[in-house]
Q: What sequence folds into this?
């Protein structure tokens, strides 16, 4: 079950009849968001609360305010932005469920719940940032089940599509140690791999070398791509790398990071609380290195 992927079904997004039919199918599931918070069960391990079209009052314009996410295991999934507080309270009017900040619970969620809620969160973010045309300033309108916004000015007719920002994230090693840093606003004691956005005109390998040099003053070599991860907080595509440091003398860029230091595998194993979120690519890069450093 967990190996199934979300079918994006992009060819169906422009089929208004199909979208409307599935929205009103009791087998379809709708993810409600309120102030970009998601409806989940309370407790140590939250799970998403999915609604159906029957959960909404008759006056609610479900079609125009919902976005199609895709199909998982035969079930269509949509998300919807709840703008009215009274309606949001109606969905969370018992002690078992509440609207929660997705980023604070994302590491506790399981597939496909984490993927679906992250995508829903991103869709609302993207729409909120593209309400007006960047070319002529006119209002834009949502089409293709939320995957296109078109300028309402028919002379302009500019179209906007959801996009992601490429960013690199790298585990740098020197002999038996790995390089980790932390930002001031992170949970106390937490460290992670160095990361940053790819700049225009820059190859991703160049971005890895630049970011590590800028943040830690370390020159690197043997830059190797490992894997990627969508990190939709709000819209990053994380490209994971490993690299070897040419030296171990650190010069911290205090404008970027609060601390950067070398860790041995033994130090990390004895203090696992320093690791980043378990569902992050940073965690995967670090633990893969740990497994190979035994």
A:
């Amino acid at each position: 079950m967990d190996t199934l992927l979300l079918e994006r079904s992009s060819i169906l997004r422009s089929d208004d009849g199909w979208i409307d039919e599935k929205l009103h199918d009791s087998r379809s599931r709708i993810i409600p968001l309120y102030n970009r918070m998601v409806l989940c069960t309370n407790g140590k391990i939250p799970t998403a609360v999915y609604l159906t079209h029957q959960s909404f009052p008759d006056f609610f314009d479900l079609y125009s305010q919902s976005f199609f996410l895709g199909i998982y295991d035969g079930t269509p999934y949509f998300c919807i932005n709840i703008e009215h507080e009274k309606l949001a309270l109606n969905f969370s009017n018992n002690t078992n469920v509440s609207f929660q900040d997705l980023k604070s619970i994302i590491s506790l969620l399981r597939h496909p719940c984490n993927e679906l809620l992250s995508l829903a969160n991103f869709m609302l973010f993207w729409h909120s940032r593209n309400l007006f045309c960047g070319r002529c300033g006119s209002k834009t309108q949502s089409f293709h089940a939320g995957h296109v916004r078109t300028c309402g000015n028919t002379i302009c007719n500019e179209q906007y599509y959801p996009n992601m920002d490429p960013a690199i994230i790298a585990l740098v090693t020197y002999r038996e140690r790995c390089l980790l840093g932390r930002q001031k606003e992170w949970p106390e004691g937490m460290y992670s791999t160095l990361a940053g956005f790819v700049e225009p005109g820059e190859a991703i390998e160049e971005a890895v070398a630049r970011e590590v040099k800028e943040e830690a003053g370390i020159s690197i070599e043997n830059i190797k791509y490992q894997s990627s991860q969508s990190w939709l907080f709000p819209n990053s595509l994380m490209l994971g790398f490993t690299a070897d440091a040419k030296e171990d003398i650190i010069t911290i860029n205090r404008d970027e990071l609060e601390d950067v230091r070398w860790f041995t595998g033994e130090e990390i194993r004895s203090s696992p609380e320093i690791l980043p979120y378990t569902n992050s690519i940073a965690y995967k890069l670090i633990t893969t290195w740990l497994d190979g450093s035994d």
